[in-house]
Amino acid sequence: MADGYTGPRGKDFSTSDEIRPLAHRSDLWGAWLVLHAWAVIAAGLALFAAWPNPLTFLLAVMLIGSRQLGLAILMHEAAHMALFKSRRLNEFAGEWLCGRPILADLFEYRRYHLKHHRHTQTENDPDLRLSKPFPTTPASLRRKLLRDITGQTGLKLRAQQIMFAFKMAGEVEGQPSSQELSQAFNGPELGRAALANLVIFAIMWAVGAWWWWLAFWALPLLTWFQLVLRIRNIAEHGAVEFSDNPLRNVRTTRAGPLMRLFVAPYWVNYHLEHHLVMHVPAHNLPHLHQRLLDRGLGPEMEIGQNYWQVLRRAASRPA
Q1: Residue 38: which H helix or E strand, with range?
Q2: What's the whole-number mean pLDDT along residues 287-306?
Q3: Domain for residue 268, yes or no?
Q4: Which domain holds residue 111?
Q5: pLDDT at 175 over 60
Q6: What is the tally of structural domains in the chain?
Q7: Is 199 within a domain?
Q8: Nearest Cα to Cα of residue 149 among 240, 251, 225
């Protein structure tokens, strides 16, 4: 794949014949994953509509926020041309069905994300600011997670988007990360995101009430989505080796059913394997993981036993 990536690849640990079947892309898989993400969102809405109470409201926000992260993950798949077979389908679905609804720009994301792959955990990594602060103190991590779940982080990023859209990027304090830049629109791009959200608003009003978009789209995007996005970022590159060793500068984290439902959808936890062969579709990453273990590479790989263990490690610096 002509993506400009020059770092270590899976062929350093597997043969081309072994990788080729794992790298096969399927339009059926791509369509199923996009449909699944939106079906879970619909299920969250249906849960609240059938039994409206504070518990189902909270569950709906968590389910929808986790699938908003799922849409970000599928946009990431499309950015690598791994969601569908053709560029056209990858870019249409990645932009309109995954990226724009969560105020993300597929094309800007791809440009910066490939740079992250080229320079993982080095000074030229545009995402280094997301991982370099770790490990931090328990109090610092609690403050970060509290800002996420209360919407402070989300509101700050949305304000940043608006400033970028109106050509006020120079007034934003600090340099945005590649993840933040994927959400930095110019005017027409912000209009496309607004159009996607207008469609969601109309559908939610039609099946529920006018305030559903605020409660079940904007609120999850500002809160639960930001929380699980932070946890994902920490798990992938937080408190790992600052080196170019592809088995140690990125982490795979084991995830059970609840974690996959609420925190790590669509095999996003297999991040080490993704960095080794980034064009392997997400649903084949568990097979690549097992192949690496079968080759005896397990002791050399950075593997988190669960997300709680990873967060404890990320907060292991003495106060």
Answers
A1: helix 27-50
A2: 95
A3: yes
A4: 10-314
A5: no
A6: 1
A7: yes
A8: 225
